[in-house]
């Protein structure tokens, strides 16, 4: 099915970290548990430290450095760098540059470093175990990171930093909990393995399981259960179409602890310029997909040309025209806005602004109405198809 992968030499450091250490854990932990009980504190340390390392990746490596979805003060950068180092996923520079390549060439078997089209195993972990050309770092896409002092410091001293961060976190926690070995094994070892696979799921399962409400031009999916496991990164379909948004779960009710954390940082003055895609663009993408799905459903149900289905078909076509009209209105408004700005007459801009705001609002409202109507039509259509 998939083309065979190119031959590539084994990366022994990755094999040590991702295969050897988990095997040691599988043997050592049950042996230890036969003679000792893990304290409650050691179990809690595992969950808390899983959060610390995973959020370092999601809020730091991913949304701050790979996507520049917000700006962080230096103290926050240092904090996120320490948290991310604790997750042992290579340096920010390497990770973020590779991730930018993933977005740029998503699903391409030769250029996406963790293309799902090379299979689950490859996208999950296999891509790291050998030195595949696709995963070779190419820092041409990261000139901003090459200038970032925190990023470059971490890249230069990565290995000693990994050791120092582990000692600085695990020893005091073990001491506080009064169960040094328990914390080392659960908060250290098991936590590290869990935190690795949580991130790897984003590259594997988040490109396999779930819905595609915003785009079907790539394999990325939205999946609530994966969002729970991945600190909010499971809304991966949204993320692949609007990668610069600091939110992955864009709806206020969607479970995305990373977006809440970034928002909280901004309230404390540690983060600013949180980037949000305008709601019109989000609705537009969502509605365009709904029409696409409606067309596909029609192709399935449409054989049975009852009167109901014929009517629904006609109504959907009318709705689509209305949708296109709304998009045209929107484009015209945008054009007017640009013209007003060019005219640069303060008074005029002010008048235009309030008038346009009103009209923008009307257009957005119409878009929401189209969505409602379409939902209703699709429900009727499916009901009709079932009863026939
Ligand atoms: Zn992806
Ligand atoms: Zn991303």
TrEMBL record:
Listed Pfam families: FA_desaturase (PF00487)
Domain Fatty acid desaturase: 43-265
Bilayer topology term: Multi-pass membrane protein
GO CC annotation terms, alphabetical: membrane
BP GO terms, sorted: fatty acid biosynthetic process
Keyword terms of this UniProt record: Fatty acid biosynthesis, Fatty acid metabolism, Iron, Lipid biosynthesis, Lipid metabolism, Membrane, Oxidoreductase, Transmembrane, Transmembrane helix
Cell compartments where the protein resides: Membrane
GO terms for MF: oxidoreductase activity, acting on paired donors, with oxidation of a pair of donors resulting in the reduction of molecular oxygen to two molecules of water
InterPro entries assigned to the protein according to its UniProt record, in alphabetical order: Acyl-CoA_DS, FA_desaturase_dom
Entry's transmembrane regions: 12-33, 40-58, 78-96, 157-177, 183-202
Family matches, as PANTHER family: ACYL-COA DESATURASE, DESATURASE 1, ISOFORM A-RELATED
Similarity section: Belongs to the fatty acid desaturase type 2 family.
Protein name from the UniProt record: Acyl-CoA desaturase
Gene source species: Acinetobacter lanii
